[in-house]
Write a structure and sequence with these properties.
Elements lengths: L1 H49 L6 E7 L8 E7 L13 E8 L4 E3 L8 E6 L10 E7 L5 E6 L5 E2 L1
Length: 156
């Protein structure tokens, strides 16, 4: 009987470790995928501004509102005027909105911790400034930093 209890205890410990490892790996993969998708979206938006798609300038608005699981970014086009609460306030139209989802969020932005934009010049497609966007995983505890440089390189 004692052996049975020991075996059941060992199995329970191994199962707990396995589930914990699975959830951590899953959260890490979600973080990596979100960063890869965002890099592709940045590259596509840069190309749209370079080609002046629909005759407009393009940018991405990042928003980090209070609370968890509600961070998002919007692809915008039009005539960018200034950092605002959304694409329309910035002088444009929202083309697409992507929510990061539960367990993922943006780290605070600089200088405004709640929002930031990556704006691409019309015709050249080059970013107007260096911008750093960090996606963090609350579940896995990791993060991915994406840097957009004025020369057009996007790294993470």
């Amino acid at each position: 009987m004692v052996e049975l209890i020991i075996v059941v205890g060992i199995i329970a410990i191994m199962a707990t470790i396995g589930v914990s490892d699975y959830l951590s790996t899953r959260s890490q993969k979600r973080l990596e995928l979100a960063a890869e998708v965002l890099v592709r979206e940045l590259n596509l938006t840069m190309e749209r501004s370079r080609s002046q798609e629909d005759g407009h300038q393009w940018w991405i608005h990042f928003d980090n509102p209070a609370g968890s699981g509600n961070d998002f970014y919007s692809v915008c086009y039009g005539i960018y005027t200034a950092l605002g609460v959304d694409c329309v306030a910035e002088g444009g139209v929202e083309s697409k909105r992507t929510n990061l989802g539960t367990g993922l969020g943006f780290s605070d932005f600089v200088p405004d911790p709640t929002k930031i934009n990556v704006v691409f010049f019309k015709a050249t497609g080059l970013p107007t400034a260096t911008t750093i966007v960090t996606i963090k995983s609350t579940a896995a505890g990791g993060s991915k930093t994406i840097t957009v440089n004025p020369n057009g390189s996007i790294t993470f």
